[in-house]
Specification:
The chain has 6 helices and 11 strands. By secondary structure, the protein is of the alpha/beta class. It is globular and about 40 Å long. The model has no long low-confidence stretch (mean pLDDT 94).
Length: 214
């Protein structure tokens, strides 16, 4: 069985989204700055069916993460940005069109049940209504010897850490200050010990890897 791994980008002041998110601007004001480091890499563009991009240390980080992931877990907000019954969600099939970039099973945390969605390119979205522990358990069964990647958002990461499910935390720190928005870590969370196992810096981001203790 592989590891349960968090991969998420945050600003230097600890936000994973800017203030005032909307369906049209899901990352909030200036939130798109967070991911400028990744969207220019050739490995991210290849994953999304695009050509070109830069080959650099950031690209190698993306390539490594994609290669190791056998399944993903994400929250409803990351999947569609919506809430409530699916029939009222204008993006009920997700952000990514007919061929999402994951190409492996994805388990979406939600309060509203629905049947799995099989998409082109090998991605299947399954919708889990009984909590993050169940989502991770299903993802581990699907991933086999590969890792389960918890992709976000902040609430999903916080729940997984609180439940003791995370083996490895990969925090990609963008060199920006958002000033407000959605914090990655909750203020009332229980203490967690981390052991730094890698620090990789580029002009566009600093990539921090930690093993997660208790």
């Amino acid at each position: 069985m592989g590891r349960v791994v968090v991969n998420i980008t945050a600003s230097l002041d600890g936000y994973v989204a800017g203030p005032s998110p909307t369906l049209e601007e899901p990352l909030g004001k200036n939130g798109e700055w967070l991911h400028e480091w990744i969207t220019v890499t050739d490995s991210w563009r290849e994953q999304h069916g695009l050509e070109g991009g830069e080959s650099n240390p950031d690209s190698e980080v993306v390539k490594e993460s994609v290669a190791s992931a056998g399944a993903y877990v994400m929250g409803r907000k990351m999947f569609s940005g919506g809430s409530g019954p699916w029939e009222d969600d204008p993006r009920s099939t997700g952000w990514w069109g007919d061929e999402p970039p994951f190409h492996v099973p994805v388990f979406v945390l939600t309060h509203h049940a629905r049947e799995p969605m099989e998409m082109e390119g090998g991605t299947t979205f399954s919708f889990v209504t009984d909590g993050v522990e169940s989502a991770v358990e299903h993802a581990q069964a699907a991933a086999g010897d590969r890792d389960v990647s918890i992709a976000g958002g902040a609430a999903t990461v916080q729940q997984a850490l609180a439940a003791g499910l995370v083996d490895e935390l990969n925090l990609h720190v963008a060199p920006i200050l958002l000033g407000a928005g959605t914090r990655l870590f909750g203020e009332d969370a229980d203490p967690v010990r981390l052991e730094a196992t890698r620090v990789l810096a580029s002009p566009s981001a600093t990539h921090l890897r930690f093993d997660v203790g208790s």
